[in-house]
Structure formats: C-alpha cells, structure tokens
C-alpha cells in the first residue's frame, strides 16, 4: 500500500509538505517575537551536534537535539523577563558551534558524513525513517501550538500584559525555546542547517504584506511555503540544483514578486 | 462601611543589586476605589505596579491577593512588532474570550468604537491608550492597573481620560491602581493617594496628601507650574489623541 513511498521523489515531497506545515506557524511566532536569529544559532550549532552524535556513535539527530536543548536551557536561565536574547550571545554560540562542528566532523573518517548535506540539506535522500520522525515531531509541535496558541500570541504582543493577566510568561517562553530546538532538529534534514531560518522568515515576510490577523498570516505563509517548495523541488529536478537552496531561491523570488505586485495594487491594511 | 479589600501589601521592599528601589511599602487596594501612585521619575512607581501585577516576584514582604483576583493591565509602553498584523478587535481578545457585544461596549465606553477594525500599527498614541483602556475592562476584572495611561496625551484629553477611569470604576465596581505624574488632574477621581519616593512619603486622601510637607517638597515646583497650565484657557476641544474631530480617520 505504501509502495509509492519507495520513490525518492515522493518521499521528498512528503517531507517538504510536513516541513511547510510546521514552518508556517513557528516561523510567524518567531518573527513576531524576534526569535528568528535563535533558529539560525541552533542551526549553526547543530553542526557540532552532528559531530558529537557521530563521535558517540548515536544517530546525529540526537546529538543535534541534545545540544540544542542544552543551549536553549542555558539561554532561558540567563534571559531575564524583559530582555530579548542578546545578539552578541547568539552570534558567539552560533559561530562557535559551526566552527567546532566543522573541526569535529573533519576529524571523523571521511565517508561517515557528508558535510554538504548537513549544511544545505538533502531532501532527495529522505528515508522512510526520516519521514516518520519528521511526522511525529511535527504532530507534537502542532498539538502544542494548538493548545497554547492564545498564550503564544499574547506573549508576542506584550509580555507585560500577558503576565499581569494570568499567562505564565516564563513557562510559555521556555516551551517556545524547546519547540524551536525540536523544529531545528527536524528541519535540518530537509533544509540544511544554514538555510533553516530562511524557510521560517521569507514566506512569513511575504505573508505579512497582506495579512490582517495573526492567524491569517500563518495560513498565507503556509501557502507561500507550499509554492516555494513546489518551485524548489521542480527546479531541483529539472536543472539539477540542490533542493534546499532551490527552495530558498523560490521563496525569495515569490517575495520579490509579491513586493512588486503590492506596489501596484496597494492592499488596504489599515 | 468597609469595602472589600482585594489586595493587601505589607512591607514590600525591592532592590536591584545594591540599589534599593522600594523600601517597606504597605497599602491596601479596595473594591470600587481608585488608588493613585504619584512620585518623581525613578521613585519606583512602575516597579511597585509590576510587583502588584506579578511581573516581579523576587521582592521581600507579603502580598495577599483575594483568591482568583482578575487583573486588567495597561502598561506604560506597548510596542507591537510591525511584523505582527493585529486589529484593535484582536488586541482586545488578547488574553480573554469576549463576545462581540462586550467588545463593542468596551470600545464605546472609551469612545473609540470607530477604531474596532483598524490595525493597531495605524493608531496614534492617544488612540492606542484609549483602546488599551477599553481592553483592561474586558473579562470582568477585579483590579485595573493603569501605568501612566495619559502619557503622550494632551491636557484636555488627559482630563477626559481620568473622567472615563472614574466612570469605569463606578460601572465595573473594580479597584483601580493608577500611576500618574499629575495629582492636580487625578485629584477629583482619586480615593487614595500613595506618594512614593522609594519609601512611602505620605498616603491618604488627595486633599491631605497635597498639603503634606514631603509632598510639597517633592512637587512644590510642579504644582506651581500646573497652575500656570490651568490658567491657559482652551477655546476648543480635543479628543484624547489631540484630533479635534473624533471621526477624522473614518
């Protein structure tokens, strides 16, 4: 019954669809809360996670997840109620993780790991096992989003109002960090560690151009994500481009197109 | 006749590092009473409201809240990220579920019903303050905390805003905690004044506080200045946002 999953292209499409479904709501929340850079940091540090995983001879994804959780836990300790994450701290973690990871991976016997696949993703090499873990994590994340959506949106608007009116902001914030760690571990396979943030930010920015409510922005960025995925996989197939970068270029092309259109036809947003 | 006490603060102290911000503050907030915190910049006014709101938890002293105390909060500054599309209506539903009729009533009460479908980013500072005031009244709050609700609002808009706060108190029968710079404008609406400068300089009815030597030492000059402001007579009316015609944006 699932023979069609034997085709690598179908597996790639399914993996891409799952990613789009979770990237849209998470991307919006992260853009609203100015956390997009955190996904970049966790992505870069994931290279070190992969290296650690391989050294300890466990699945690289567990190495990535463990390191990401250590990072978000430390960040939530130092991050006081009102202060946004410091860009400097994030940049230091990001680049130390990337540099350390590249050295670690370089120390391993060469055929074990394909650095390029880690950095830029390898959608077309998605296995059935990858699909299953992607699906389960995404379902978990969607359930959490559904359960805490009002609180997430409230915290995005004003942490002060949210806290005063009964939302446990620190708890919500910590949950958000853990969810971002999970998201990065999952998206890494499809997009590559360097391009995760692109998929969270670019479709979201396009969607913002004509959204009037937070929820609307999520749906519209889902559509943009879908179109970018379609464009990316198609061009990857026809022109032999790498899939991850092709998806990002499609997303940017769509953003530019949308910007051009909204210049001519100004949507009434106020 | 004693009205129900909703919140009792006893010997609240708070320091940041070695700097003492609040020194043994005690007070009570009662149902249907407006309590105004006045004090110079850096007196600890916002810190004290943040403690009442539960935003700051590492204070010393005791705060007793009546069980399930519901708070509506208007912070001093609200900065909504421009990347977030948000209508006024959605902002009112931020933390609570409210019916269309409740939203309508809350906005009408703050005289901004016409802003309902507008995006929050397009509001002027005065309009935003009124929308936020309307927001605090939803969900049947026991206590409304307003941190400088009239910052960025002109004088006649300010007077109207304080009248509205009085009306809200009468209607909702909730306690109001108000942070303000200008006692002369809040005076007529206030039941209790807390004059704060790290410690509680004086507290009580507005008439008695305004005669207190510590109050005069802190505000003597400002009071004199504000009388000068009063002497200037307005020949036209502004709304809170400084716009003479409230339907200007429609």
Topology record:
The complex is a heterodimer of chains A (270) and B (250).
Chain A: H1 8-32, H2 36-55, H3 60-78, H4 87-107, H5 115-120, H6 128-157, H7 159-164, H8 169-191, H9 196-208, H10 214-239, H11 243-264
Helix pairs in contact in A: 1-6, 1-8, 1-9, 1-10, 2-3, 2-4, 2-8, 2-9, 3-8, 6-8, 9-10, 9-11, 10-11
Chain B: E1 5-16, E2 19-30, E3 34-38, H1 45-53, E4 60-65, E5 71-74, H2 88-92, H3 100-109, H4 125-136, E6 143-147, H5 155-172, E7 175-179, H6 183-186, E8 192-197, E9 199-204, H7 206-209, H8 213-231
Parallel strand pairs in B: 3-7, 3-8, 5-6, 6-7
Antiparallel strand pairs in B: 1-2, 1-4, 8-9
The gist of it:
The complex is a heterodimer of chains A (270) and B (250). Chain A is mainly α and 270 residues long.
What tags apply to this protein structure?
heterodimer, A: 270 residues, mainly alpha, ABC transporter involved in vitamin B12 uptake, BtuC, B: 250 residues, alpha/beta, Rossmann fold, globular
The major sheet of chain A is characterized as: none
CATH-level-4 superfamily name of chain A:
ABC transporter involved in vitamin B12 uptake, BtuC
- What's the overall average pLDDT of chain B, rounded? 82
What would CATH call the homologous superfamily of chain B?
Answer: P-loop containing nucleotide triphosphate hydrolases
In one word, what is the shape of chain B? globular
Give helix % range of chain B: 25-40%
In helices, the fraction of residues of chain A equals over 70%
Order of adjacent strands in the largest pleated sheet of chain B: 5-6-7-3-8-9
Distance between the termini of chain A: 51 Å
Low-pLDDT regions of chain A = none
Average pLDDT taken over every residue of chain A: 87
Element order, helices and strands of chain A? Answer: HHHHHHHHHHH
Task: Give me the oligomer status.
Answer: heterodimer
The CATH topology annotation of chain B reads as Rossmann fold
Discrete helix count of chain B:
8
Give me the number of helical elements of chain A: 11
Characterize the main sheet of chain B. Answer: 6 strands, mixed
Write the H/E string of chain B, N to C: EEEHEEHHHEHEHEEHH
The secondary-structure class of chain B comes to: alpha/beta
Strand content of chain B: 15-25%
């Amino acid at each position: 019954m699932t023979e069609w999953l034997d085709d690598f292209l179908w597996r790639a499409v399914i993996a891409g669809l799952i990613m789009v479904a979770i990237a849209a709501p998470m991307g919006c929340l992260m853009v609203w809360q100015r956390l997009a850079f955190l996904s970049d940091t966790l992505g870069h540090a994931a290279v070190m996670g992969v290296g650690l995983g391989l050294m300890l001879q466990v699945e690289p994804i567990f190495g990535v997840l463990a390191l990401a959780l250590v990072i978000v836990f430390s960040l939530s300790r130092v991050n006081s109620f009102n202060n946004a994450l410091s860009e400097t701290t994030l940049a230091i973690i990001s680049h130390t993780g990337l540099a350390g990871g590249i050295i670690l991976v370089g120390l391993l016997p060469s055929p074990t790991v394909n650095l390029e696949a880690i950095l830029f993703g390898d959608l077309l090499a998605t296995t059935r096992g990858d699909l299953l873990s992607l699906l389960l994590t995404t379902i978990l994340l969607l359930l959490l989003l559904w359960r805490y959506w009002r609180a997430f949106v409230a915290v995005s608007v004003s942490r002060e109002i949210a806290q005063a009116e009964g939302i446990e902001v620190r708890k919500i914030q910590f949950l958000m960090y853990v969810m971002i760690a999970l998201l990065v571990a999952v998206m890494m396979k499809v997009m590559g560690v360097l391009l995760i943030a692109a998929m969270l930010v670019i479709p979201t920015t396009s969607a913002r151009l004509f959204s009037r409510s937070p929820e609307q922005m999520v749906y519209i960025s889902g559509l943009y994500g879908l179109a970018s995925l379609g464009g990316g996989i198609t061009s990857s197939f026809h022109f032999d481009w790498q899939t991850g970068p092709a998806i990002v270029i499609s997303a940017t092309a769509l953003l530019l197109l949308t910007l051009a259109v909204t210049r001519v036809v100004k949507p009434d947003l106020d | 006749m004693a009205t129900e006490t909703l919140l009792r603060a006893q010997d609240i102290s708070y320091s940041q590092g070695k700097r003492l911000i609040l020194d043994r503050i005690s007070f009570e907030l009662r149902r249907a009473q407006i309590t105004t915190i006045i004090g110079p910049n850096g007196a600890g006014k916002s810190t004290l409201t943040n403690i009442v709101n539960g935003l700051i938890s590492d204070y010393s002293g005791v705060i007793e809240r009546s069980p399930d105390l519901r708070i509506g909060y208007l912070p001093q500054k609200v900065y909504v990220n421009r990347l977030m599309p948000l209508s006024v209506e959605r902002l009112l539903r931020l933390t609570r579920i409210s019916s269309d009729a409740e939203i309508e009533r809350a906005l009408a009460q703050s005289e901004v019903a016409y802003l309902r479908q507008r995006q929050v980013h397009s509001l002027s500072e005065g309009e935003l303050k009124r929308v936020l005031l309307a927001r605090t009244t939803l969900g049947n709050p026991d206590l409304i905390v307003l941190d400088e609700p009239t910052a960025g609002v002109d004088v006649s808009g300010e007077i109207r805003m304080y009248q509205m706060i009085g009306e809200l108190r009468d209607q909702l029968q909730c306690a109001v905690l108000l942070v303000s710079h200008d006692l002369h404008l809040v005076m007529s609406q206030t039941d209790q004044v807390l004059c704060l400068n790290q410690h509680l300089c004086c507290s009580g009815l507005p008439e008695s506080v305004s005669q207190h030597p510590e109050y005069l030492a802190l505000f003597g000059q400002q009071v004199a200045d504000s009388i000068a402001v009063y002497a200037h007579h307005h020949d036209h009316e502004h709304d809170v946002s400084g716009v003479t015609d409230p339907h200007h944006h429609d």
